Amino acid sequence: xxxxxxxxxxxxxxxxxxxxxxxxxxxxxxxxxxxxxxxxxxxxxxxxxxxxxxxxxxxxxxxxxxxxxxxxxxxxxxxxxxxxxxxxxxxxxxxxxxxxxxxxxxxxxxxxxxxxxxxx
Length: 120
Known about the structure:
Order of helices and strands: EEEEEEEEEEE
Low-confidence stretches: none
Strand content: over 45%
Distance between the termini: 40 Å
Largest sheet: 7 strands, mixed
Radius of gyration: 14 Å
Number of helices: 0
């Protein structure tokens, strides 16, 4: 069982920056692919960014490409999302998720979410 805990959310003005963290339990953190998702009020949860177990492969939603950077520190069992040039439309609850590298289906483990609010 993997437990994920997000932190780092808050209120920021448009154009500002935030860094989210996702701390994972367990001793095989690098055996899990990780991702960030977000859900805005009244909208479905959407993919934000992905990172492979080693951190060597990443992918981003078009809406955040060039502004957000996903990374991970396997020695600290932690994943990050650096968010720059934030826009009001980035306002959402941000969730981290993980699944074993061998898995092909949906993500197995989810955090409780952290609120990000961007004011105009």
